[in-house]
Amino acid sequence: MASLPYIVGNWKMNGTRASLSEARAIDRGAARLPKVQVAIAPPATLLHRTREAVELIGIGGQDCHAKDSGAFTGDISAAMLKDAGADFTIVGHSERRTLHAETDADVRAKAEAALGAGLAVILCVGETEGERDAGNAESVVGGQLEGSCPHSDGAVDKLTVAYEPVWAIGTGRVPSVDDVAAMHKAIRAKLVSIYGEAGAGVRILYGGSVKAENASELLSIRDVGGALVGGASLTAESFLAIVGAAAALEDN
Ligand code: PEP
Question: Which of 31, 55, 156, 219: disulfide with 195, CB 3.0–4.6 Å?
Fold first, then answer.
């Protein structure tokens, strides 16, 4: 049976307690759209409060450290995310890979730590504009998957991959339908080569400037199993419009 479309909001470094009203509104809206699986990744400071504020939607971290505990000032372990109420964590977001120089090996270690703590994982991959222009997008993304996919027992069952072209994040630019389709097909093939047949069941999200206006087109593409949404996830109104677009496709 095909899994429900999965729409995940990444709030990044945005949100204070005042944003809990948006989380509650997203939760209420998601309850009216049961054919879509909805989750948000608020900043870590809000995880616990968000867990208490919502009933239905998933809650996740945006990153975790690879170690369980220790002298890592400012970092947060997967076990801490779990304790604060998280169901999953994002790892390997391009902002972490670029601004914090995270390598594929770092991302894999974080993914393994998250799985070990009982969290599901959303693993982000994506090429820069220069890499796409040079014709290397698929090989770059394939290499990221080879280097950062977790391999522990049962990993494939708790893994979601998010294809997020770096040049599409926060820019208002999106790849063509053909380019998204080609990349998702390539990611599917790579996941099958890594995990065997189980790789065919991993959900692959598209992320990068998803909005209500382009959500239906993007979500209709073969092998696009949902969306990872940044800017448009910050208000319930704009996020639920995307969730609604996903629900409408399920109804058709
Ligand atoms: C993201 O950073 O994960 C993202 C998809 O951002 P935006 O939707 O704002 O492009």
Answer: 156
Write the single-letter amino acid at 111. Answer: A
Report in angstroms the alpha-carbon separations of 104 from 62, 67, 128.
16, 16, 15
Using CA atoms, how far residue 115 sits from 78, 90, 100, 151, in Å, is 8, 12, 22, 10
Instruction: Please give the full DSSP string across 97-126, using - where no structure is assigned.
Output: HHHT---HHHHHHHHHHHHHTT-EEEEEE-
Amino acid code (one letter) for 40: I
pTM: 0.97
pLDDT-derived band at 2, boundaries 50, 70, 90? low
Identify the residue whose C-alpha is closest to ligand 1 atom 6: 230
Helix (H) or strand (E) holding 205: strand 203-207
Residue 1 banded pLDDT, cuts 50, 70, 90? very low
Q: What is the pLDDT of residues 45-95, one digit of tens each?
A: 999 999 999 999 999 999 999 999 999 999 999 999 999 999 999 999 999
Average pLDDT taken over every residue of the chain: 97
Ligand 1 mean position to 208 CA, how many Å?
A: 5
Q: Which of 12, 122, 164 to mutate to test the pocket of ligand 1 (most atoms within 8 A of CB)?
A: 164
Is 93 catalytic? The answer is yes
Q: Are 154 and 119 in contact (CB under 8 A)?
A: no
Examine the residue annotation and report whether 48 is marked as an active-site residue of this protein: no
Give the integer Cα–Cα distance in Å for 3 and 204: 11
